[in-house]
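ERR on first pass: missing label on line 2. Operator R.T. fixed the label and resubmitted. Corrected input:
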Amino acid sequence: MAQEISIFDTTLRDGTQGEGISLSAEDKLKIAQKLDALGVHYIEGGNPGSNSKDIEFFERAKQLRLQAKLTAFGSTRRKHSVAEHDTSLLRIVESGVPAATLVGKSWDFHVHTALQTTLEENLAMIYDSFAFLKRNDVEAIFDAEHFFDGYKHNPEYALSVLLKAQEAGADWLVLCDTNGGTLPTEIHEIVSRVREELIVPLGIHTHNDCELAVANTLAAVQAGARQVQGTINGYGERCGNANLCSIIPNLQLKMNYACLSADQLQSLTTTARYISEIANAHMPVGQPYVGNAAFAHKGGIHVSAIMKDSKTYEHVRPELVGNKQRILVSELAGQSNIISKAQELGLDINTNNDKTKKIMEQIKELEHQGYQYEGADASLELLLRDAFGEHKAIFTLESFKMIMEKAAGQMNAEAIVKVNVDGETVYTAAEGNGPVNALDNALRKALVQFYPKINAIHLTDYKVRVIDEKDATAAKVRVLMESTDFESSWSTVGVSSNVIEASWEALVDSFRYALLNMSKVETAHDVPRVRLGLVNH
Ligand SMILES: CC(=O)SCCNC(=O)CCNC(=O)[C@H](O)C(C)(C)COP(=O)(O)OP(=O)(O)OC[C@H]1O[C@@H](n2cnc3c(N)ncnc32)[C@H](O)[C@@H]1OP(=O)(O)O
Ligand SMILES: CC(=O)C(=O)O
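pass 2 clean. output:
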């Protein structure tokens, strides 16, 4: 029977102490529900003694009926006061939560310097505060701040702090590596020693200042800690907290501890991505387990082996954490990358045939010119479909013209586009707040009469990258565009020494890709040979 580990999520409290992370009460409610579905055991919702947003969150969270224990955070009572009158403690009890975490000092240096009080008064603050929580029937978790630094400088005092919380009735004693400077070997040794002296179960809370938060958490669990505190995607103060998205699969898949059910573990990737969206914090593609590139294979040698057995380059099956394998096609590709991608698209391909080699050479040549297909899946698909004769000539460009004007202090752009749709020439013109927007509007206007659904498509990201900086303003640029129709999103690429032409290429690929799955609507039977789109001014 696997040993159970209690997962304590503090994304909504310590996570929001990370730079750039700010969540409304509404955001917090959404995230709490997602964490609950993931199956974490505790959700630390915030600090009701700190701000009214967190008070509102705890009030509204009462309607959520969470399976997880909702936990409020605060600190031990202020020095020389009484717990019954301490605002932070009163707010916690008023919030109606079943569990609370109190941070308290365990490093003598902090007692003297930050609290500016005596070691005895700090022990009294801890005792009074935990006794108060227990009198109010609240499960009480002690976050022993700076425990490892404290233990290294004054082990007797650091231990006496834990014993005091235990004496007052604390249910968990959580050892914190608050400054994130401790090494895994030290964590293991200190947790092992301290565990011998206590009855109450231990937890671990680490920060990532030495990029060791995950390793330190695992070391603490191996030494006997039974609660793990951390955040989704590692958000948190300074360099962040321990990342639960790495800790949970490491504990469960590699160390045989029980954290979540197998089904819940499969929702880890969507949970991580959902929370990054709400927090408006970009997720690194290479984030272990849940990142977009965590199981992406690019090198030809890797892909060739992966196709024989994915264990050759994957440490676990991506499906176990809800992620998936991806094959990237780039200048580093061998035939295996192309074959695998073509098979994924349902294209008929045979190993080692001349066509595969030709496509590979074509891609390498295009990448040499500055195109980049690993970040432009839709352009790559069009390229492969064209090469396999699955070309769908939906429209062709005859010409486009751009007019840029600065008048009355304002920049205006107008695009005139001439395209051919199934033998019909269509002219349109449209304005935009910039040249790309004007081109987008004009092309869309030319196509919408044949493909009305095209209006649902919009651009979500647009990036320009200079390819050969040494040529300064004459340099080639690569434009990467991301588009969506609300159900899916796709990326396209264009390259030119003219930024408008590069944008046009990426824009055309985006529309061509969207139109692959749209059927053409026949308009009036007396369609003229040349249509004039409406011109907006
Ligand atoms: C390791 C951690 O992550 S702990 C959590 C840190 N998170 C936060 O601080 C976010 C929420 N904090 C807040 O909203 C505010 O800091 C509050 C409401 C808690 C306090 O605000 P203020 O009363 O204005 O105090 P301020 O933030 O300036 O200073 C902190 C005070 O708490 C005291 N304090 C710090 N830790 C503790 C503790 N464990 N127990 C009791 N008092 C403490 C400090 O000594 C200081 O008191 P002082 O003003 O008498 O010197
Ligand atoms: C409690 C806490 O967040 C810390 O010590 O880092």
